[in-house]
Amino acid sequence: MRDPGLAALLSFLIPGMGQLYNGKWGRAIFWFIFTPGLWLGTGGLLGWVAHIIAAITAHNYARRHPYRSVGG
Asked: Keyword set for this entry (predicted)?
């Protein structure tokens, strides 16, 4: 089973890790690229926004899809 709290924590610490935990590779790659771009592009002002949104989306996905499929 997926733990929504763990997914959120992972993505809050490193945006994209919660998505990897959920098995969503494409979304993980997006957050791995987008977050540093936002940190650098805004001089650090909006980087935390990406952390929060990534954590919320990872949490919501894990809550809606609590069971892993076979092989993933």
From this structure: Membrane, Transmembrane, Transmembrane helix
Q: What's the domain range around 17?
A: 4-63
Residue 8 lies in a domain: yes
Tell me the Ramachandran region of residue 14: left when phi exceeds 0, alpha when psi lies from -120 to 50, beta otherwise: beta
Is 39 within 8 Å of 51 (Cβ atoms)? no
Tell me the pTM. Answer: 0.87
Asked if 64 and 1 touch (Cβ cutoff 8 Å), the reply is no
10 pLDDT higher than 90? yes
- CA dist 9 and 71 (Å) reads 24
